[in-house]
UniProtKB/TrEMBL annotation:
Official protein name in the record: FAS1-like dehydratase domain-containing protein
Pfam families on file: FAS1_DH_region
PANTHER family: HYDROXYACYL-THIOESTER DEHYDRATASE TYPE 2, MITOCHONDRIAL
InterPro entries per record: FAS1-like_DH_region, HotDog_dom_sf, Mitochondrial_HTD2
Domain FAS1-like dehydratase, first and last residues per copy: 87-148
A Gene Ontology molecular function term of the record: (3R)-hydroxyacyl-[acyl-carrier-protein] dehydratase activity
Organism: Comamonas testosteroni (Pseudomonas testosteroni)
Length: 288
């Protein structure tokens, strides 16, 4: 790299940022059944079946391959400092925007597995709120010499959302065939952050939420919502998922209940979480 990361806010040097494309990391882990049972406790699910040899529930691979950096290597937001594996995008807010997964073969709890990750694309757009930079990371979960899961993880970088701003997109969802309530409390946010070693301060530091990133309260993790939707899809479909795609539309804040919905779409399911005003917080599609 011939340039430094001294790019100023509002000055997106896309050519420089794209020098991160192809950057790769490989990590190994054991899919501990104990961690899975702790996740079940966090979501108030049954734990007895989560033993070595049982199938890993969909999206629970996010409990593993965790990067444990010292505090001196974290940024102000609690994430790893920019410019390591991910590019140094000069925009204040970094959010897990969505992703898509393919489940090629089941993977068992207790297995020794490997994850290969690389930056696959970096794009710059202009939205109503200003500059947006989208970084996509491709993850491959390998069980021996077989790729068990392929995942494209979309990260968006943006400036703080002004108070009172509304989403520019309002998806129209079908009539649900199944609905159930879900509300994360502060204990669930704490436990999920701990289980995924997620240091992002929007999930536990109210002053930081309000004063720096512009949220009125703690933010419910996007991956937590996605996990709830994937679990509902597997339960309703009564068979393993083959594909799952999700996208965050509006943040869900602590103290705001959600309605978790599903509707059939041929052999697939459309799923979404709805805020009390009916707007969509996260939408997803599941195929079997």
């Amino acid at each position: 790299m011939t340039q430094t990361s001294s790019v100023q806010v509002g000055d997106i040097d896309l050519e420089f940022l794209r020098t991160w494309i192809g950057k790769e990391v490989i990590s190994d882990d054991v899919l501990s059944s104990r961690h899975a049972r702790l996740m079940a406790a966090t979501l108030s699910l049954q734990q007895e079946s989560l033993v070595d040899g049982a199938a890993l529930p969909p999206l629970w691979h996010w409990l593993y391959f965790l990067e444990g950096l010292p505090a001196s290597e974290l940024g102000r937001d609690g994430h790893p400092a920019r410019g390591g594996f991910l590019p140094p995008v000069p925009l204040a807010n970094r959010m897990w925007a969505g992703g898509s997964l393919e489940f090629h073969t089941p993977v068992a709890l207790g297995s020794n597995v490997r994850k290969r990750s690389y930056v696959s694309s970096i794009e710059h757009k202009r939205g109503r709120s200003g500059d947006l930079v989208f970084v996509t990371v491709r993850h491959e979960l390998l069980d021996g010499d077989k790729v068990a899961i392929t995942e494209d993880h979309d990260i968006v970088y943006k400036q703080p959302t002004p108070p009172g701003a509304t989403s520019s997109t309002a998806p129209v969802m079908p009539a649900p065939s199944h609905s159930e309530s879900f509300e994360a409390n502060s204990t669930m946010l704490f436990r999920y952050s701990a289980l995924t070693f997620n240091g992002h301060r929007i999930h536990y530091d109210q002053d930081y939420c309000r004063e720096v990133e512009g949220y009125a309260n703690l933010v419910v993790h996007g991956p937590l919502q996605a996990t709830v939707l994937a679990g509902l899809a597997a339960r309703l479909g009564q068979r393993p998922l083959k594909r799952f795609r999700y996208r965050g539309m509006r943040p869900n804040l602590l103290g705001t209940p959600l309605l978790v919905n599903a509707a059939p779409d041929g052999d697939a399911l459309i799923l979404w979480t709805a805020l009390p005003d009916g707007s969509v917080s996260m939408q997803a599609e599941a195929a079997f």
